[in-house]
């Protein structure tokens, strides 16, 4: 899309010295661009804390007004979550809508949501965001309509308070309704999860910062090992290209199988309402046998991104699970790839040797408890032979007088299940 077709915006931020400010502002620019905005100017101020009424100091707010006019900006986007009064007071001066970081992320999520579950989760987060802002929004409209005269203002304020309460009840009803619908969706998702758990396959979840290359890696694995290679996931070079968790079954050349999940990407200062809303979407990560953290190796902010991933996992209650770290996009750096140091590998998702190394490491982790055994299965137990041929890594098959002799590599669960057929070595 040409920049002339994008909404011109001014990004603003307050440097309090409490976090990596430059990184946060770069991220805000990327988020703005993901929402079809063109950042024409960035304005910052160094303060120990936000000004309670206007976020920026008075002089800086007036300077911002001139910057908006000079650049023909249509929206101001703040790096922090603003109070309703801060938004209202800023808008009075700059004369264009003001959007905070939370509102921006919610707008992106609303545009990206595809499945019914994702749409409901975003709707719930938006309603929870709007609830505390009803009072200020109503008062602002009343001020515009009636002025601030003592008589008229007082009379209408009473009517306004009644309307605010009515609006609050309406929003609360909507929240309750969405939560009820989400419960129905969760029940359906839970049935699918239970069906997957019945087949007792290892679950590997791709996690990490948004736009680190998780979907690209997943598609490369699906191309090679997918049960249906047409079921690839969307890839786009932008933050939050997809919000839905995708689960695909992979089968390797030796018949070993696993479930691979591509989860929604993380971003710093993810709104609390969205963290809460997307807990169910991230169920796959919370119940994985192995987490594969994908990191953009070409980004100078990769350490901060990894910290964001760690914090978000803690926020959504993901336990301390086995994890490998994949430094992706190494082709955009001067580093050699593919390479490995313990549980960390450096790769480029489009490089064949890189995918080979990734598969090797994943297999080491999730199939380490497999057992190699020799089974003698009676001819009348043909279903067992069929099961092993489909689910195990069969190394040899011999047909003897008293049954079928199969040497195979199986899971611990399958070994215990068919232990009565095991031949002692």
UniProtKB/TrEMBL annotation:
InterPro entries assigned to the protein according to its UniProt record, in alphabetical order: G_HFLX_dom, GTP-bd, GTP-bd_M, GTPase_HflX, GTPase_HflX_N, GTPase_HflX_N_sf, P-loop_NTPase
Gene3D superfamilies, alphabetized: 6.10.250.2860, GTPase HflX, N-terminal domain, P-loop containing nucleotide triphosphate hydrolases
Cofactor: Mg(2+)
Claim: rRNA-binding is one of the keywords in the record: no
Gene Ontology cellular component list: cytoplasm
Short name of one Pfam family: MMR_HSR1
Sequence positions that bind GTP: 208-215, 240-244, 262-265, 328-331, 348-350
Oligomer status and interactors: Monomer. Associates with the 50S ribosomal subunit.
UniProt protein name: GTPase HflX
């Amino acid at each position: 899309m040409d920049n002339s077709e994008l909404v011109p915006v001014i990004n603003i931020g307050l440097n309090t010295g409490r976090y990596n400010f430059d990184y946060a502002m770069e991220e805000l620019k990327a988020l703005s661009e993901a929402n079809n905005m063109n950042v024409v100017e960035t304005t910052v101020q160094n303060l120990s804390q936000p000004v309670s009424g206007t976020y920026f100091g008075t002089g800086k707010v007036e300077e911002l007004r001139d910057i908006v006019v000079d650049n023909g900006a249509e929206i101001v986007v703040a790096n922090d979550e603003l109070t309703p009064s801060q938004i209202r007071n800023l808008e009075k001066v700059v004369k264009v809508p003001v959007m905070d970081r939370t509102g921006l992320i919610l707008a992106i999520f609303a545009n990206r949501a595809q499945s019914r579950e994702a749409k409901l989760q975003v709707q719930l987060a938006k309603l929870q965001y709007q609830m505390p802002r009803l009072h200020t929004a109503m008062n602002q409209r009343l001020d515009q309509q009636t002025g601030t005269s003592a008589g008229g203002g007082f009379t209408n304020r009473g009517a306004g308070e009644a309307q605010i309460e009515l609006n609050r009840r309406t929003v609360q009803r909507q929240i309750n309704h969405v939560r009820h619908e989400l419960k129905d969706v969760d029940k359906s998702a839970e049935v699918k999860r239970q069906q997957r758990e019945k087949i007792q396959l290892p679950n590997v979840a791709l996690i990490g910062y948004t736009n680190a290359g998780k979907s690209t890696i997943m598609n490369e694995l699906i191309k090679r090992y997918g049960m249906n290679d047409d079921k690839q996931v969307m890839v786009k070079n932008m933050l939050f290209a997809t919000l839905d968790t995708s689960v695909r079954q992979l089968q390797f050349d030796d018949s070993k199988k696993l479930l691979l999940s591509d989860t929604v990407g993380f971003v710093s200062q993810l709104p609390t309402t969205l963290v809460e809303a997307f807990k169910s979407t991230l169920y796959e990560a919370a119940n994985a046998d192995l987490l594969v953290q994908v990191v953009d190796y070409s980004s100078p902010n990769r350490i901060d991104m990894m910290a964001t991933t760690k914090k978000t996992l803690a926020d959504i209650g993901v336990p301390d699970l086995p994890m490998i770290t994949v430094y992706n996009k190494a082709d955009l750096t001067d580093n050699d790839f593919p390479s490995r140091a313990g549980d960390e590998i450096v790769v480029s998702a489009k490089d064949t040797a890189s995918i080979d190394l990734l598969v090797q490491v994943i297999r080491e982790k999730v199939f380490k408890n497999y057992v190699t055994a020799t089974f003698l299965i009676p001819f009348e137990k043909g279903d067992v032979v069929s099961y092993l041929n489909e689910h195990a890594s069969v190394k040899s098959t011999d047909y003897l007088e008293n049954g079928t002799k199969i040497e195979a590599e199986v899971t611990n669960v399958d070994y215990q299940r068919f232990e009565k057929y095991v031949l002692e070595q």
